[in-house]
Structures are given as C-alpha cells and as structure tokens.
Specification:
87% of the residues lie in helices and 0% in strands. By secondary structure, the protein is an all-alpha fold. The chain has one domain (2-113). α1 runs antiparallel to α3 (40-59) and α4 (64-88) runs antiparallel to α5. The longest helix has 25 residues, at 64-88.
C-alpha cells in the first residue's frame, strides 16, 4: 500500500506540475509546442489531460477503478509523446522522460491492482 501511495503522489506531482505549465501556456510550453508542431491550444488541451490524469491517479487511492482509468489514459498520452518524438527523429534523450514516466505509471497500475 505504501508503494501505491508513493507512486500516486509522485504521478500527481509530476503530471500536476507539467499539466499546469502546459495549460497556462508557459513560455517553455509554447516553445515545446512549436518544436513538436502542435498549436498552443492543442498543448493546453494536453495539459488538461495531464492534470486530469494526475488527479485521477491520486483519487485512485480512494476509488481504485478511477486510478486505473487515469493510469491507462496517462499511458496512452505518454505513448503519443514517444510516437511524436520518434516521428520527428528526435534523439533518445528527448523521449526518455516520457518513457520513464510510462514505467512509473505502469508500476502504479501494477501496485494498484495488487
């Protein structure tokens, strides 16, 4: 249970912070949107999904099915991020954060189901 709580908190923190920056269209978010070929509006929508996923992971401690759905949604979002980086021909270092977060979310899902 401690592992599940720790992972949920870490996911909520990571995706909450990134989601806020993307939703508010911070200068770094605007730069990344342009770099990846997304509009700022699309990046804001991604930020909202990140916020929802982080919140869902935290709420999943009380309502496990919600946490499971949030985790699956985040995995899909992260898979999309890796695909975007691969299509752009980015070096591995560019998509390592998304891959590490995917492992983190997958670990949360496993811990949640245990």
């Amino acid at each position: 249970m401690i592992l599940t709580i720790s992972l949920a908190c870490l996911i909520a923190l990571i995706f909450g912070a990134i989601g806020v920056l993307n939703t508010l269209a911070s200068p770094k978010a605007r730069e990344l949107a342009a770099e990846t070929g997304f509009s700022v509006a699309a990046y804001r929508r991604i930020g909202v999904l990140q916020l929802a996923g982080g919140a869902g992971a935290a709420l999943g401690l009380a309502v496990p099915p919600l946490g499971g759905l949030a985790g699956v949604g985040l995995l899909l979002l992260l898979a999309g991020a890796v695909i975007v980086h691969l299509r752009k021909g980015d070096p591995v270092a560019k998509f390592v954060p998304a891959a590490v977060c995917a492992v983190l979310v997958a670990s949360y899902l496993v811990a949640l189901s245990a």
